[in-house]
Design a protein that fits this description.
Blueprint lengths: L8 E8 L5 E8 L6 E7 L9 E9 L5 E4 L8 E4 L2 E8 L5 E8 L6 E7 L7 E8 L6 E4 L8 E4 L2 E8 L5 E8 L16 E4 L7 E5 L6 E6 L4 E6 L5 E4 L5 E8 L5 E8 L1
Antiparallel strand pairs: 1-2, 3-4, 4-6, 5-7, 7-8, 9-10, 10-12, 11-13, 13-14, 15-16, 16-19, 17-18, 17-20, 20-21
């Protein structure tokens, strides 16, 4: 005979045979302490990073626990995690096992988009910035010192903004406001072939052209001020350097018959 589904406790068994002879025995069933645990998830702060974590705390159970995560880790707590689901098997000192599952999340990637209304001679331009993803609220830092999301009444030039979300994740976006405010300069020789590279640049740029009659090169800022000027008689190239970030215009001329204007962006 057998008994099952018994609670913990002390049991006495009496066996009697056909002749009326009896024998007694005692059996004790001990109560097993179940493993009780909880876990706290630290989610990934910025999209694509590996800084998530799971902190497990044992509340009850028989010591000498063995921890087995499905990613191969065998520590109680795990860190350096990318977004995903992590499953845990805990085996106590009596060989009994329990299981848990934790999901590490991440926000969508932060991104920004700029739309520009170009300025006219009578009205400044506008920059409309749209931010998606990340974790709001956002902060904005423009290269002209502004901290608003959008800009109004802007002049021509290079505008760059760093957007940072509540978790410190950031994205950098730039645009060019292109109103040409350079009086008296226009392209009047379409046959002159000019190349500027690299463009945009963060260091120097090289200008090349196909006509040795060019004798003057001028570099003007977005306000039409000449910041560099050189004579380039019998040359077919010129190296531009030592410019601050911004938008510039390169004017090649023979001084009489033609002029050719190219744009250069320095970041």
């Amino acid at each position: 005979m057998s008994q099952s589904d018994l609670a913990a406790g002390h049991y006495t068994l009496t066996v009697t045979d056909a002749m009326g002879c009896q024998a007694d025995t005692s059996i004790s069933i001990e109560e097993v302490t179940p493993t009780v645990f909880e876990g706290t998830v630290q989610h990934v702060t910025c999209h694509g990073m590996a800084n998530g974590a799971v902190d497990v705390t044992i509340l009850e159970g028989t010591p000498d626990f063995i921890f087995e995560w499905d990613n191969g880790m065998t520590t109680e707590d795990i860190s350096g995690l990318t977004a995903g689901t992590y499953r845990l098997k805990i085996t106590n000192g009596e060989g009994c096992s329990v299981w848990g599952s934790y999901t590490v999340e991440q926000s969508s990637a932060i991104s920004s988009n700029i739309e520009v209304t170009q300025p006219t001679p009578d009205q400044g331009g506008e920059i409309d910035l749209t931010v998606t993803g990340g974790t709001a609220p956002y902060t904005y830092t423009w290269n002209n010192g502004e901290t608003s999301e959008d800009l109004w009444d802007v002049a021509s030039g290079l505008y760059e903004v760093t957007v940072m979300d509540a978790n410190g994740c950031d994205v950098v976006t730039n645009t060019i406001v292109e109103e040409l405010n350079v009086a008296g300069i226009e392209n009047i020789d379409n046959d002159l072939q000019v190349s500027v590279y690299p463009n945009p640049t963060s260091d120097f740029a090289t200008v090349t052209w196909n006509n040795e009659a060019v004798n003057t090169i001028e570099i003007l800022n977005a306000n039409g001020q000449v910041v560099q000027k050189a004579m380039v008689d019998m040359q077919l190239s010129y190296r531009i350097e030592d410019l601050n970030a911004g938008m510039y215009f390169i004017n090649l001329s023979d001084g009489f018959n033609y002029s050719n204007v190219q744009k250069l962006v320095v970041r």
